[in-house]
Amino acid sequence: MLPEDYPVELQLSAGCEVDPGNTSKSFIHVAFQGVHILSFQGTSWVPVPDAPSWMKLVIRILNGDQGTREMVQWLLNDTCPQVVSGLLEAGKSELEKQVKPQAWLSRGPSPGPGHLQLLCHVSGFYPKPVWVIWMRDEQEQLGTQRSDIMPNADETWYVQATLDVATGEEAGLTCRVKHSSLGGQDIILHWDGRCTSLGLTVLAVLACLVFLFVLLGLTFWIRRRHYQDIL
Predict the structure, then answer these.
(1) What is the bridge-based pairing of β-strands 145-146 and 102-107?
(2) How far is residue 54's CA from residue 178's CA, in Å, rounded to a whole number?
(3) Do the domains at 10-94 and 102-191 have one common CATH topology?
(4) Domain residue ranges of the chain, discontinuous segments joined by +
(5) Residues 6+ apart with CB under 8 A from 136
(6) Which residues share a beta bridge with 122?
(7) Pairing of strands 157-166, 145-146
(8) Residue 148: helix, strand or coil by DSSP?
(9) Where is the Ig-like domain (predicted)?
């Protein structure tokens, strides 16, 4: 006897997996009130071992509809693998895209008296997964703090790893970068204390901007004087 509980909730899960050898595995699972009750296997519907007794009637009705069974077979065995293969082929270049990262070191703002903040920047890599950490003598520095991986304008990615150390203890530190595009040849950067600090970098940029504005202003003034002399 069919259940009379309301509301009735039916859930259906369907899909397929395409293996490299062009073999595929397809499935359809049906759940009733959140409990798995039957699947489509081969050419027919099959109940799960602990399905309720009323499923026998449902299975008999479903398997008696040959047209529907043939359509389900066609969707699972032909249509689904073709769609998945087409999507994989269309996105193949994107899936296989590999761009090597660029990495450099800098000194950040001081976290406090007698301490240094070391920054390891990694940018321009694709795909997104990357491993960046500060190390000393092949030992990972547990104080490494990694930022979120952020997108660049060219669809590559950027991340930085930060390490706070006491002044004088920075010697021997290295930043190690692992990425699929490197083919196992990790990037290893050695801290030598000569990296440009963030503050100096900002000052250098500001100085360049000031010089540019002065140069533009001087050029405008000279041209204006020249035009006035002509008039």
Answers:
(1) unpaired
(2) 57
(3) no
(4) 10-94, 102-191
(5) 172, 173, 174
(6) 103, 159
(7) antiparallel
(8) coil
(9) 81-181
Q: Which CATH class is domain 102-191?
A: mainly beta
- The tokens describing 25, both together, are 């595995």
| CATH hierarchy code of domain 10-94 | 3.30.500.10
Residue 112, token pair as written in the block: 């406090």
Within 10 A of 98 (CB to CB), how many other CB atoms are there?
A: 12
Q: How far is CA 67 from CA 71, 72, 211, in A?
A: 6, 9, 80
Model confidence pLDDT, tens digit, residues 56-105: 898 999 999 999 999 999 999 899 988 888 888 888 877 789 999 999 99
Q: Which amino acid is located at 224 in the chain?
A: R
pLDDT score of 228 more than 80: no
> What token pair was written down for 70?
């043939």
Residue written as tokens 């007794």? 53
Alpha carbons 112 and 38: distance in angstroms, whole number: 64
Residue with tokens 């259940």: 3
Question: Which is nearest to 107 in space by CA: 39, 175, 208, 183?
Answer: 175
Residue with tokens 């082929």: 89
Token pair in block for residue 117: 């903040």
Angle CA 195–201–207, to nearest 5: 140
pTM for the predicted model, two decimal places = 0.53
Backbone φ/ψ region at 207: left (φ over 0), alpha (ψ -120 to 50), beta: alpha
